[in-house]
Design goal:
Layout (H helix, E strand, L loop, with lengths): L4 E6 L2 E5 L4 E5 L9 E4 L2 E6 L2 E4 L8 E8 L2 E11 L4 E20 L5 E3 L34 H4 L40
């Protein structure tokens, strides 16, 4: 089996791809789902053990890919906040991607390495019905496992919240009697 792969650049990012790979890249605006595109920014190419490094790209090499779909990325929440001035702005963002399936890698000398389609294994044929069928004796029925009611018993579920009785208040000592002044007596008048 040949180990052919290429390092391509698209959307300002670099990806390692091989025939049959599926990857998400930044949205390709020039094409729509179902269309085939040619990626000619091949930075490095490896065929078997021969590696070709471009200066900056490998001349004549290209990757053929098909756009399967254009999914959205995960939602990112952007929150702007300034304290003391009641400034809050909350926005969301979902990035647009293009899902590419790599169809083939072409080298500068014209060799083309295509993706090998994955074939599901064929279902096995049923044995003919005419052959002797050996019947198995019926298995003995097992007794159901004994349950340990006491070990697995769950506590009864409360239906209403029961509050504990309030604690008895400690008897406070009676306040000390305030010292009182004797009541003023009526002024004595001098008898003449």
């Amino acid at each position: 089996m040949t180990t052919t792969y290429a390092i391509i650049e698209t959307g300002g990012k670099q990806y390692r791809v091989a025939p049959g790979d599926v990857l998400d890249v930044d949205r390709v605006k020039s094409a729509h789902p179902g269309e085939t595109i040619q990626l000619d920014r091949v930075l490095m190419l490896s065929v078997d053990s021969a590696v070709t490094v471009g200066k900056p790209t490998v001349a004549g090499a290209r990757v053929t890919a098909k756009i399967d779909s254009e999914p959205l990325g995960e939602k990112i929440i952007v929150l702007k906040y300034k304290r003391k001035v009641r400034y809050r702005r909350k926005t969301g963002h979902r990035h647009h991607y293009s899902r590419l399936s790599i169809q083939a890698i072409e080298t500068a000398d014209g060799r083309k390495f295509a993706a090998t389609p994955r074939v599901a294994p064929a279902p096995k044929a049923e044995a003919p019905a005419e052959e002797a069928v050996v019947e198995k004796p019926a298995a003995k029925a097992k007794a159901p496992a004994k349950r340990k009611a006491a070990a697995k018993a769950k506590p009864a579920r409360r239906t209403a919240a029961v509050k504990p009785a309030p604690k008895a208040a400690k008897a406070k000592p009676a306040p000390k009697a305030a010292k009182t002044k004797p009541a003023p007596q009526a002024a004595k008048t001098k008898k003449e």
